[in-house]
Amino acid sequence: MTPARVFVWCIFQVMSPKIRLQCSDSELGKYVSTWLDEIRLDLPITLDLRLTIVDSAFIPEDNRVPFRQPRVEIRSGPPLRSVGVLWLMGAAHAVIEAKSTEARVSLTTEAAARREELVSTFLHTVLVLLVRRAGWHHLHAATAQDSRGRGWLVAGDARAGKSTMAALLASRGWPVGTDDTAFLARRGEHVVVHAARGRIALRHGGYMLLSQNVGARHERRGKMLCFPEELGAAWLPSVKPDVLLFTRVGDRRSNATAITSREALAELVRWSAWVALEADLAQDHLNLLRDLATQAQGYRVTLGRDLFDDPMRLEELIP
Amino acid sequence: MTSRYTRHPELRLTELEDEGVVLHLGTRKYFSVSESGLIILNALEAACTFEELVALLLDEYDVSPEEAADSVTEFLDRCSASNLLIIEE
Questions:
Q1: Residues A210 and A261 occupy one common structural domain
Q2: Is B26 in the A-facing interface, judged by CB distances under 8 Å?
């Protein structure tokens, strides 16, 4: 099927020249360009993101078993060599061919009109898959650096206290990179974690712990959003993790238990589920996770009220 | 007829602390295997018979032929149950 529209391509040069954006809708292009500027990914190679508005949803036949993530489905593996991303909230679809550094996105005008949701759910996922071509592999984790220069990585699910800890640590002056979107990469003999710069998203309870009147309310998500800089911290573009925390929130006093590298690797695989996608990239991703598990000391940590009241207690728990 | 075993093409292996970690891209499941299990899975990049795998363990470890055969049998059974192998009869 060929889109009936005659395209006038707009090429947006984002601040980082590493993601070249082309979009056939100027309003959407400006919005996506602003987003790419804001997240500040300093990739080692240039990648292409090409957005095409079509008159009807153009979704190629793909019978592969989907890997489901919130609001998107991802299809990869044989018999095709591409990875496909389908948006479940509107008519949008993306394809990245094996070994290609370009993501081709087709979407309708209606889908393009929902810009904020499109970017935060669908294009975010497309970007996660695209940057794997640059050797960057996504991990659901927060990143920070303590006063001694130790790099911290905090992994866990949406209720694991990552964002609250990241915000509290930022409010105490720790440089913070991200509260959720981290990318593993190799730098020499080490594994480093690059952060997608974004607003730390806090539920009401977490925001109240800050005792600061900063940030902006996001009505749809029902959260308060704050950049690390608004909380008094420097943004941390990348960090070499020395400490890995796998957190959950508990009712009792905070505690930390050191774990082995094997246990840390099992946790990292859990929070970096993309490792199982795309055979060409999976080995590199798995090796990065293994090297990170070896490079840093892992801990399972229960975050109790005491730690939320005094986040600097983290340095006592993990001396 | 002799069976020949190959590891599933969608497996990815890595070594950590003298043990193996196996990721199955098809089922998206993660396994850990012992050092000897990792040796067997590495060998199974190419098709091997049961007897060849037993001989491999006898080369690597100071064990009796019976112990090596039992270990290989148990390992292949477990791998087979988790869809980690291709078996050609």
A1: yes
A2: yes
pLDDT tens digits, A301-316? 999 999 999 999 999 9
Tens-place pLDDT, residues A162-181 = 999 999 999 999 999 999 99
Cβ distance of B25 and A287 shorter than 8 Å = no
The Cα of B88 is separated from the nearest Cα of chain A by a number of Å equal to 21
The predicted model scores a pTM of 0.90
CA distance B26 to B9: 9
Question: Could you tell me how far CA B53 lies from the centroid of its own chain?
Answer: 8
Structural domains in chain B, sorted by start:
4-88 (3.90.930.60)
pLDDT digits (tens, 9 = 90+) for A250-289: 989 999 999 999 999 999 999 998 999 999 999 999 999 9
Determine the structural domain holding residue A287 and report its residue range: 137-317
Q: In CATH, what number is assigned to the domain containing residue A170?
A: 3.40.50.300
Contacts with A212 (C-beta within 8 Å, 6 or more apart), sequence order:
A171, A231
Residues 246-265 of A with CB under 8 A from B: 260-262, 265
> Quick one: A171 and A305 in the same domain?
yes
What does the DSSP assignment read for A251-316? SS--EEEEE-HHHHHHHHHHT-GGGGS-HHHHHHHHHHHHHHHHHSEEEEEEE-HHHHH-GGGHHH
- Whether complex ipTM tops 0.85: yes
Q: Are A73 and A86 in contact (CB under 8 A)?
A: yes
Distance (Å, whole) CA A195 – CA A143: 7
Answer whether the bond into residue A79 is a cis peptide, omega within 30°.
yes
Q: Which of A76, A191, A262 to mutate to test the interface with B (most CBs of B within 10 A)?
A: A262
**Using CB atoms, which residue from A265, A276, A279 is nearest to B28?**
A276
Residue environment code for A175-187, b if the CB has 16+ CB neighbours within 10 A, otherwise e? bbbbbbbbbbbbe
